[in-house]
Amino acid sequence: MTQNNINMQFEELFNKYSSMVYRTAYFLTKSKYMADDITQETFIRIMKKFHLYNPEKPIEPWIYRITMNITRNMIRKQKLLNIVGVNSQGIEEVEDKILKSEQENELWEEINHLSYKSKEVIVLHYYSELTLEEVAETLKIPIGTCKSRLNYGLEKLRKSISKKEFFQIEQILKEEI
Amino acid sequence: MRKNINESDIKNALRSELDDLHSSVVFKDVLDKQNKKGYRKILIPTLVALLLCFTAFLSPVVNARFEGLFEYKKFEQSDGKEKGFGAMWEIAGYNSKVLGSLEEMEKDYNMNIPFPKQLLSEEKDSLFKEYRVNTNKEGGFYAYSYTLRTKERSYRIDATNAKIGKPKFKAETLDGTAIDKEIVVKGEPARLLGVYDMKGYYIYIEKGEWKMIVSDFSDNQNISREDLEKEVIHIAETINW
Q1: Residue B67 dihedral angles phi and psi, to the nearest 5°
Q2: Which of B23, B210, B217, B229 could form a disulfide with A22 if both were Cys (CB 3.0 to 4.6 A apart)?
């Protein structure tokens, strides 16, 4: 197979999965700049490590595993490279979007407040639509741990939504009095 | 009281926020970067070898003013760990807001803000630019961070006049050595910090109540370390204290 053909195959793979990789990375980092970097690094690694992919298995968990590893590394690196507590690149738009979401989508806001580990499971399971077995495989964790991270996240979501509603009702009652 | 959240609620929340997002990366960028990485691999060991001789001239002068500013050690390869070089500084404040320009920052907070003017002329080639002011609890000025990315450079300025400690620079490098030099910028003592694994420098400088970090990292592997060093010092020299 010529290099051109190989590149064409990778390009096909890129066209099919790059958006999902980008959105997953964005969800976890809240930075478009970092999400772009993660997308690029993910596909560089895919090209470099493609010989390690087992074609008998579905490719999505393999791609997402690479995405997750690169995202974790970049977040770690970013913490060191940037001044603690200040996030830099391209955040303004993101913040606007988060603000918008706060008004428009309470659930989205609460999902963003979950722990990183719960968010990983939630984005892979509910957004990328991997099965829980595939999520466990992607994150290299036992299925039991995967389920408990998901349950913990869902429980936290339920509680925080309920709590908010409770305070909203309480506020309305106070205003009425 | 417990609200029942079902799967489709979560899916919809994620989809409504994420589905419209698209990466600006195209496949050609991946190919270009991959080719560039291959080149870097060869380049870096050569560079390190060449610059080892250079380090002999860089023995740090002990100066109490900057003592303990920079800690570096040899990078130990372990799973998922990456080399790093950066600064940690508690300048986040209580809140932050993004402004459009230096003038706007100065006008909003009614103060003169020290800034390396050279970077204003680099803004014409900016791919990304951000002026971010970090505020204290009362909404007053606490610190600012400026980021400028051009095709070949990543510049960043962090500065504060708050009564806080100095930043802490840390690095884990391939050979366990680093560049740590006392320099003088327009009469003010400053510290120039770098590592051989990356084409980039930090300058830490203080004047009066202000403390500032100037950083300049290059994506262009062809620039010599000496030229980059001159460049970052020149940028620091244009600070309007």
Answers
A1: -60, 140
A2: B23
Distance CA(A69)–CA(B130), nearest Å, equals: 28
DSSP B240: -
Q: On the CB side of A167, how many CA atoms lie within 13 Å of its CA?
A: 5
What pTM was computed for the model? 0.48
Q: Give, for A104, the enclosing helix (H) or strand (E).
A: helix A91-104
Question: What is the crossing angle of helices A59-81 and A3-29, to 10°?
Answer: 60
Question: What average pLDDT does the segment A111-117 reach?
Answer: 87
CB pair distance less than 8 Å for B89 and A84: yes
CA distance to partner chain A, nearest, from residue B83 (Å): 8
Helix, strand, coil content of chain A in percent (nearest 5) = 80, 0, 20
Contacting residues of B for A83, CB less than 8 Å apart: 87-89, 91-92, 145, 158, 167, 213
Other beta carbons within 10 Å of A141: 16
- DSSP helix/strand/coil, B206: strand
The residues facing B34 across adjacent strands are: none
- The residue of chain A with its CA nearest to that of B157 is A83
User: What ipTM did this prediction achieve?
Assistant: 0.76
**Residue in B27, B96, B145 nearest the CB of A14:** B27
How would you label B178-205 residue by residue, b for 16+ Cβ within 10 Å and e otherwise?
bbbbebebeeeebbbbbbbbbbbbbbbb
* DSSP helix/strand/coil, A160: helix
- The percentage of residues in chain B with a pLDDT greater than 90, rounded to a whole number, is 36
CA angle A49, A141, A70 (to 5 degrees): 40
Q: Which two tokens stand for residue A141?
A: 């964790």
Q: Show the tokens assigned to B131.
A: 């002026």
- Classify burial at A138, counting beta carbons within 10 Å of its beta carbon; exposed 0-12, middle 13-18, buried 19 or more: buried
* CA atoms within 13 A of residue A66's CA, in its CB half-sphere: 24
Q: Which residues of B touch A39 (CB under 8 A)?
A: 23, 25
Query: Tell me: the pLDDT tens digits for B190-220?
Result: 999 998 878 889 999 999 999 999 999 887 8
Q: Among residues A151, A153, A119, A137, which one has the least CA distance to residue A64?
A: A137
